[in-house]
Amino acid sequence: MKKTIGILALILAVSVVAFAQRKPSTPIRPYVVKTKQSVADLEKSLHSIDAEIPTKDVVSKTEDLIGGEGMQLRVAVQYDAKKNAAQAEVHDASDDVFYVLEGSAELTLGGQLDNPKEATPGEWKSDRIVGGQTFTIKKGDLIVVPRGTPHQRINTKGKKFSLILIKIFAQPLPPKK
Predict the structure, then answer these.
(1) Which domains does the chain have, with CATH numbers?
(2) Is pLDDT larger for residue 84 or for residue 61?
(3) What is the pTM of this model?
């Protein structure tokens, strides 16, 4: 009995010491705060590509707010001046979250990619989706696209479109080679 009490006391003492040494984690990078105005200014600055419209079929510009090597998160503002056609895609290891800032688009979700090709490891592309559901998305809409979900976005004809893209990766991004 004394031996059992002694062992329990030892376990309790070790647990208290281990618990006392534990501390909260510290930030791995600085936090980011973007005011409504700073996001609007950034989105407006991406409109500089409007001059390229007559010369290109698809005119798109993206500015990352956070992301890169070692990150599991990418946040960017994307502006499309002309995207009347776009490839469908599936991401094996990342989820997408879209928050529409301006314009409207047709977004097809679900179904299957028709004749998919792996553009880069884990990133699949196709000209179209078979059996998906199409939604009209517009300013203020929030869309969550889990990894493995086919998706394809085409701007409403002749309209400009911008969104905040949040991409959540299953694993931290490796260093660029």
Answers:
(1) 36-169 (2.60.120.10)
(2) 61
(3) 0.78
